Structure prediction request, 390 residues.
Amino acid sequence: MGMQDTAIVGFAETKIVEQSDRDVWELGAEILEDLLNSTGFEKQEIDGLILSSSMTGAGNCFWSQTTADHLALEVDFCQTVDIGGCSPTGALARAAIAIDAGLCTTVLCLFADTQKAESNQRPRSFQQEWQVPQGLLGPPTSFGFISSRYDHQFGLDLRALGKLAVAQRDSAVLNDLACEKLRKPITVDDYINSRLIADPVRLLDSVMVCDGASGLLITSKKNAARKGLTKIVTPIGYGERTTYRASESMVDVTDTGHRVAGAKAFKQAGLSPKDIASIHPYDDFIIAIMLQFEMLGFCKQGEGAAFIREHEFNHLGDLPLNTGGGQISAGQCGLAGGGTNLVEAVRQLFGEGDKRQVKNTKNALVTGIGGIPYARNWNSSVVMILTPNG
Prediction:
């Protein structure tokens, strides 16, 4: 399989900040420079550029070309992936496909957004006509809807959800690149007592939109070997599903596309949930993490809270979770936020997690969530399994 011939040879990440005073292209240039310095590649060797979605770039229909121009990259393959928070992991999958197809040899996957400082989004969808007049205002209310339905079907265990929030915050405290405002320890009681945003969603359930960038440098295993790079990470399984069950008029909003995307990724990798060494799920809201445990087969649907109670999720636990703090505790870099968890997974498999380094680096699972449709859970779901040294 072509994807398994791919080598991630470098990763980079900026400090996540509440609001950047630097242009999004300046952040991208920092990522590019760091990747060149850490891998020994020359700039002219990069012949592919794949960007994640960006709220800053949302008003520019030539975003990938303009970014290539500002970074002075002359490339044979250029694309922006527009599946929301799935875009960074989706970009990595597309880079592997492009390299395997011979369209390019070395790809910069760049995930940069300054949504807080400069959002240029103009959603042309149903929200303004059908949701906003009814008071359904943005992601918190949508996830309040999902959470309420889950509570009706299975019951919500706030202490279990709080355990996830605490584990991620503990990791953010150890992460120097996490947003400083969020690098403060919390307790389960702090989580439960945090103010309601959209009942039953609480403040500490929710991401805080920030600014920042991250990125990966990807090439073929053969090219990595020619360059003398022995430390690599390889994708061995990938699944993607958009508008899951869209043709059905009434759906269970607690059933998500990760069910089918995960099954595909596990089949390609030849692994099962019990084989996963660390997990880095997309975490715009705490409930999303628990839903993904269920959809990916770590436990049965409706048994997420029991699974959480039975496991430990810090970097020394039996299932390390978002060891950089995740987006909820490190900060969400707009639509590039999925890159935070992806890059953290790569960092761990490189063995460069420093104070939060996990013990078991045989693999890592990363997910994405992108977009919020009408009366469903989310638009896109992606799952990728990575392994070190191919």
Notes: The CA atoms of residues 18 and 210 lie 5 Å apart. The longest strand covers residues 233-242. Residues 2-121+209-226 form a domain with the Peroxisomal Thiolase; Chain A, domain 1 fold (CATH 3.40.47.10).
